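Good morning C.,

I know you're traveling, so I'll keep this short. The sequence:
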Amino acid sequence: MHAAVITAYDAPPVYGEHPEPVAQGEHEIVVDVLAAGLHHLTRAKADGTHYSATGVFPLVPGADGVVRDSSGRLRYAALDDTNLGTFAERTVIDTRRSVALPDDVDPVRIAAAINPGMSSWVALRRRITFREGQRVLILGATGSAGRMAVQIAKRFGAAQVFAVGRDATRLKALSDLGADRALTFDEVAAAADVDVVLDFVWGTPAADAMLPILTARADRSAPLTWIQIGSMAGASALIPSTALRSARLEIVGSGIGSVSPRDFISELPELVNAVAEGAVDVQARAVPLSQIARTWSEKTSERLVFVP
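The tokens, ready to paste straight into the viewer:
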């Protein structure tokens, strides 16, 4: 079969022949891959910048995808730590980490949406007790995950959603998806009285935004939960001690490890339904897997989805 293979952290993927996969565990099956998204997680695991990267090569990347099993059933599958990912014509999945899909779903749309959508979905459903009527601030709202977070927060009953980003054009478009107000990072204090922050950026921008938000709160003793989800601006953020003492701030993380695989999987059917029925807008572009070397580092507002 054909697959994309990475041989070192600093090496781009190469498309070529690869040995056929073999199922070994009790719950493992070999499946045909129909569509697999190029997520930030996938790139980070491949270049060693994600905390779950194993450093074992050769590596076929791809953390999830839409697949077809031997009975012809469509599934969305998330892969555990493995060197045989979904950027291949066939791979091995654990059926316990998959959910059946309706026959009429668009594989590209599902493959594009579930990983970025699940980041905010699980954060609000599994990492905190989110209540209808609460207010949400999204840092990094112009990326794929942040854009979907606007829609998901509204779906869960957020009274107000503030979208923060750097790209003015993309920010303006978020009002059509439910954002009540779009702000630049210099304007974050205007959203000071939110209840939850979904942070996809971290690094210096998050640290610089924290004190203006906290000091501008009408009631600093009112709880503010800051959920760290992504680190597009840096893996570390210099948080001043004042931020933790001067307000009722709680910082939690949401991701692999802080949420169990079982909890991730249990949320999948509802998210799949939301995407399939068009309740969550998805920007996706299908790309032949054979073109992976050319598109691997491409910067685009669309989620690239490889089709073997």
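Safe travels,
E.
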